[in-house]
Write a structure and sequence with these properties.
7 strands; seven-stranded mixed beta sheet; alpha/beta; 266 residues; Rossmann fold; 39% helix; single chain
């Protein structure tokens, strides 16, 4: 039905009507361009200062003019977004519930509530559980988006509790969701090394992300965190695919911070 809604939106634009007046989504649901779950790491490897640092990065990104411009270019000129912090099996906590962001005022409201909320998530990694919770939030919310995206961030691809990653991931992909990744290699500017011994970006690409055009963006310093979050949001809101990101060498990949998902996962 997405193609049918797109045709109706085009007709509305040609007729000079706001796209929302032609929304033909699920009855009782508000049409938006994107349903977006920001799924942020709050496991034992993240201290309270880092939690605040992460949240500030997302708050800065959602209120940035480039992100607001990307929202304004959508057919409905609004998105529905929520912020969840994930920890162990029993610790997937909503920090900011579903919010419609359409302009600077609504973006600032989201950012303010994000920064004011106390930390609630703790424990060892339960990535499969986090993905399942994010999927359930998208399936049961009051919105109907042209794209449905889980924006997962973390400094590890290990899964110590809860359902296996694939059991949380596959149902979301089967339902047409896109899972993108933010691989956090370092949250400070004096980082002594990578957070894990394995290739975190490749682990994200092979085990976590998936769906059409899914991608991973990396963060390797405190200075690059907000920029990486902002670039990631713009890609997601604009509906750009991994084909729009051309990586010609390992050095270029590291500089750009992108990694494509394997074709088998797309």
């Amino acid at each position: 039905m997405q193609w049918f809604r797109a045709v109706l939106v085009s007709l509305a634009i040609l007729a000079g009507l706001p796209p929302a007046t032609m929304a033909q989504g699920t009855p009782g649901k508000t049409a938006v361009d994107v349903e977006l779950v920001l799924l942020a790491d709050a496991s034992n490897s993240i201290d309270d200062g880092e939690i605040r640092f992460q949240r500030q990065g997302y708050a800065n990104a959602i209120t940035h003019p480039d992100v607001l411009s990307a929202i304004a270019k959508g057919a409905y000129q609004r998105i529905a977004v929520m912020f969840i912090e994930w920890g162990d099996l029993h610790s997937q906590k909503t920090v900011v519930d579903w919010t419609v962001v359409r302009d600077l005022a609504s973006a600032k409201d989201f950012a303010s509530r994000l920064m004011a909320a106390p930390r609630q998530a703790y424990g060892s990694n339960a990535i499969g559980e986090a993905l399942a919770v994010a999927h359930a939030q998208i399936e049961t919310n009051a919105f109907e988006g042209h794209r449905k995206v889980i924006d997962f961030s973390g400094d590890s691809a290990n899964n110590w509790s809860g359902r296996p990653i694939e059991e949380g991931r596959k149902p979301a992909l089967d339902a047409g969701l896109i899972i993108n990744g933010l691989a956090i290699l370092c949250r400070s500017n004096d980082c002594s090394g990578r957070p894990v011994a394995y290739d975190l970006e490749q682990a994200f690409a092979s085990r976590i992300i998936g769906g059409p055009g899914s991608f991973v963006i990396t963060v390797d310093s405190a200075d690059s965190f907000a920029d990486a979050v902002r670039r990631k949001l713009i890609l997601e809101l604009a509906g750009l695919t991994s084909e729009n990101v051309k990586v010609r060498s390992d050095a270029d990949r590291r500089a750009r911070g992108y990694r494509r998902a394997p074709e088998a996962l797309a």
